[in-house]
Amino acid sequence: MKKRILRISLIIVSALIIWIAFIAFESEPKTIGDLMESYEDPGVRMRIRSPFSGTVLVAKNGEVIFEEAYGEEDRENEVPSTIDTKYGIGSVTKQFTAMLIMQLVEENKIKLHDTINKYLPYLPAEKANHITIHQLLSHTSGLPHYNGLQDIGVSLKDFGNTSYSPKELAVLIGKTNLVNKPGTQYSYSSFGYDILGVVLEEVSGKSFAELLDEKIVNPLKLNNTGFGTNEYISKELAKGYSYREVYGWDWWISEHGGKTTEAPFRDQSTAYAAGGMHSTVKDLFVWSEAVKSYKLLSPELTKIMLTPNKHGHCYGWVRNWDDIIEKNINVRLYGHGGALTGNSAFIGMYDDATTIIYLSNRSNLRAEEILHQIYLRANNLKDEYSLKGYPDRSSYTAFKEAGGMAALQNYFDRLSEYSGYKVNPSTSTMRGVMNIHLEAGKINVADSLKTAFFNSHNPDERTINKFGYNFLYSDNPNYALDFFKENTVKYPLSSNAWDSLGEAYFTYKDYKKAAICYKKAVALGEKVSHKSLKLYKENLQKIENILKG
User: Fold this and answer.
1) Reduced 3-state DSSP string for 146-183
2) Which of 521, 520, 533, 434 is nearest to 474 (CA)?
3) In angstroms, rounded to a whole number, what is the distance separating the alpha carbons of residues 299 and 372?
4) Which of 263, 327, 369, 370 could disulfide-pair with 341, CB 3.0 to 4.6 Å?
5) How many domains does the chain have?
6) pLDDT of 181-201, one tens digit each?
7) Nearest to 503 by CA among 529, 465, 530, 454
8) Does pTM top 0.85 for this prediction?
9) Domain that holds residue 236
10) What letters, b where the CB count within 10 A reaches 16 and e where it falls short, cover 187-197?
């Protein structure tokens, strides 16, 4: 009887959820305002990872057609957002840093193909003598992103809680390991833009904040834009929040189907010239118009600044972000997003003179979905322009019936053509396609995909490691070893890579090889006082005890 009642209760609950979903999805929002209201209070229809809280501005042909604020800039004190609320803009800061560099190029104080040893002679020669200003601007310097700190024993938490002078930050970055040879490959690096900030200070004799005010903020009268101190950020900006979805019974007692928490503190000196600025949507609109009308830089140098390099990256901008092109193959744009813990931002300048800007005090918003849906409504378009032909990869049979590898290759060839640069399948796609071929016993195809992934995708250490563990704990555990081996070849100075390889050998009960790897992890970890050194030593001791019998 109890089981029957429980089954009936579950059926009722399921029916109620379906009914709510039906009500939520039965009609699409017709206007930009309707859309943003649906994002602000999304219920079960959320498609952007978090309820929206922030500001939005949309313009056509230089005229604002929509601007509105949503949510709260301070949840604890219930302070509503306004159109003039200031937000951290994260990596949108890179546009301003790039502009400052180009302005000094125009003044003949910096040359794009100078190596950074000319400006920062205290950095290690093996980096400073080979990395150019152009490479820093275009993300081809070989410097790592923030995950490069792990290899030198610095946790992201410790990094974010530490105050650095510009020179101290540059010295720290100088200790990180290159992820590839300078000038050869695209690899997104905020550290590269931090180095540009230090170069700006060295050349100008002014702080990044002072130079920003002098050359951009004051001339454009951007009264709510700048690079502030920790105290200014805490008092004047919207507080940042992170949102996490919850499921089951927790959903019923949650707010918007998730849990919202205040974002942790991060010292401004660590965000710096790569992501430390703040602004408003109004100021960013003025900024975007100034870029297009050459108010701050000559047409010749603006053209260089906006010329795509590898992977569509210009200087501080991206040409035709493939995630947006994939949703509408007819659009072309310059844009860039920003994401700090607790903040998201995006500015998009479309070739048809549509400008879309949003700022939010929520993390991990799906910028491509927000931009796409706003663009459709700003231009009275239906959602019917997405790239077609992505093959079903739910199973090997479904994948083959949809055209298999030929269809997948064709899809990304067409996306590359529309975007203007080579677009590879995502890492999740590659992993999924490998899995279905392994499950079908098509080892040769899986091996060819693995080789293509290593050679064409330029995966970073974290991605390769993730692949290894995904396979290690899957139905194909033996397939993991090559990923862990590849990580030690590509990142031989990474103690974590060697520890992971040791764990794989341990899983396979090859204890002698595991011991060799753990010894390597300990030796490398001791050189940089790695935060996981204790764990590495424990792993080594465990293996040695097993080998002693």
Assistant:
1) HHHHHHHCCCHHHHHCCCCCHHHHHHHHHHCCCCCCCC
2) 434
3) 29
4) 263
5) 3
6) 999 999 999 999 999 999 999
7) 465
8) yes
9) 90-378
10) bebbbbbbbbb
